[in-house]
Amino acid sequence: MSQSVLVNRVSLLWPDEETRKKSKKIISLSDDSCTDIGLDKLIDEFGVTGAYRAFIKSVFTNMCEDTNVINYRLDIIDDIINNPEIELCLTNIFSIACEVERISVPESADSPYVQKLVKSFRETDLYGNCLCRCKASILKVSKKLKAQGLCKLRDIVMYLSEKFEYDDNICVAEQEDEFIKPASITLGINLDTNLRPMEAAILSVNNYKYTKAPFLNRLIDGSNDFHTNYNFHPNGESGIKNTIIKGLEEASESVVRIDSSALQLSLISDLDRMMKNTINALRTIIHRYINTYSQFFVDLKYELLFFLGAVRIIKKINCIGMKMVRPKAYPKDMKVCNIKKLYNINLAFRSEQSKPITIVQNDIAFSENSNIFILTGPNSGGKTTYINALSLIQVLFQAGMYIPAQEASLSPVDNIYTHFSSEEKKDTDYGRLGEEAHRLDYIFKHATNYSFIVLNESLASTSPSECLIMSKDIVYGLKLLNVRAIFATHLHELASTIDEINTTCEGKGAVCSLVAGAERKHSLTNADCFQRTYKVIKAPPEGLSYAKDIAESFGISYAQIKKTLHQRLMI
User: Fold this and answer.
1) Pick the CATH number of 328-567 from 3.90.1170.40, 3.30.530.20, 3.30.420.10, 3.40.50.300
2) How many CB atoms lie within 10 A of CB 152?
3) Taking a C-beta distance cutoff of 8 angstroms, is the pair 396, 323 a contact?
4) What pLDDT band is residue 22 in, cutting at 50, 70 and 90?
5) Where is the DNA mismatch repair proteins mutS family domain (predicted)?
6) What are the sequence ranges of the domains in the chain?
7) What's the pTM?
8) What whole-number distance in Å separates Cα of residue 199 and Cα of residue 436?
9) How far apart are alpha carbons 109 and 113 in whole angstroms?
């Protein structure tokens, strides 16, 4: 395998190319699921658009299942978080990578070949300068690097820098014999009756110098010699590349000093034509070299953007007073999910952007005895916030990022399938209930026992009795699949049938009840007042719909409606 191929396969996201290929997803997180769990809002915090945003989203949606890869990425974040100098270094390298991408800007098709060659050498200079700065930046933090990915980055930058210093001296030498031989040209000039030049053409390019031409001098500018001695010495003080650039630029200046007449343009055109093949061959070598190795930097800047953005998010959350931690990664087949003091990261960002919001932290523990949860509680009691928090944590974990919690042990899932109650889509023939059923059917046709299924008020578009029957079948199916799942619902009757489901339904899974968000409070005006706590705990369902409390909170209890109508003088 060539060195160039090896260089372009060095990645901060993947330990090696074989792992990257194995991790290629056939089914990734769907757009509907991204919307349901609030992933797009999280990506907004990276502050990028266009191709950058698409890349960041792909890292999240192509959920990595390899714990070695996840730890490989987490190690990089550890290094950056623990060493501000490394963050500064990577920020500098990102800026340099952007410069490298801008180096090769196509020139005009009708530009003279000599000018194209000068531009090619300038591109080489810029690339070398970028490498030099990149090397200097990473050497400052070299001893602090522990993450395998960052050590690979350091090694490849050193390799490219050394290779450039070597190739910079020999890349032109491949064409040296052809290119440095020309030392003079022979002109053919037609004169008018007054012996003034009318037409001219280059007859030959010679490998010897012609230093005296009195008659030609008088015709053109009166000098006794050629303007400059253009011998190209590869071992000269500045090296062959700089000598060529200097010679070509001075030649161009000399042409300008002589005249911009049709005669001179004709001579330049002839010289350009005669040197075309040599110059093209030389430019091909230069561009092949730059393009081969600069692609590494083009790919690198996207990966750097991901890690630098991830670190900025951690710092932003810390400034709010919350915590993000490195999760412990366990193999997929262990199905581990044990999280303490988790919270919804998007809610934390809302708190930072507006007035402070009380962020309640909760726990979750999936196991063989409780891998399917039915979550009940009052409206606006925190059910949706909780299940979104769980989903985002799983996505963040598999992207190789810290998660919003105090402590966590997690196994990867092969995908997250969501079904959230939504308005009827105008472009479907199913109707709202049909649309819900269609999406649920898709889930059971694609999910495995390594998936994570998140349902939120599913089938709520039908009557309560029908919804209960259909929801019960869904839970039976989840248990049969033995999948990790959580079903947030207003159907307390569904949660009350958990014992029946566990007893009568075949399958290894076990269903448990979670209750969200309300404590009974005694009030002078209302003995059945409930206060939302947003805490989610394992407990039997309350058996109440909290309808009276909800009605009063929105001012639509019978007493409140009567009071409103009385104030309006309607009664």
Assistant:
1) 3.40.50.300
2) 16
3) no
4) confident
5) 370-569
6) 3-174+285-320, 177-273, 328-567
7) 0.77
8) 83
9) 10
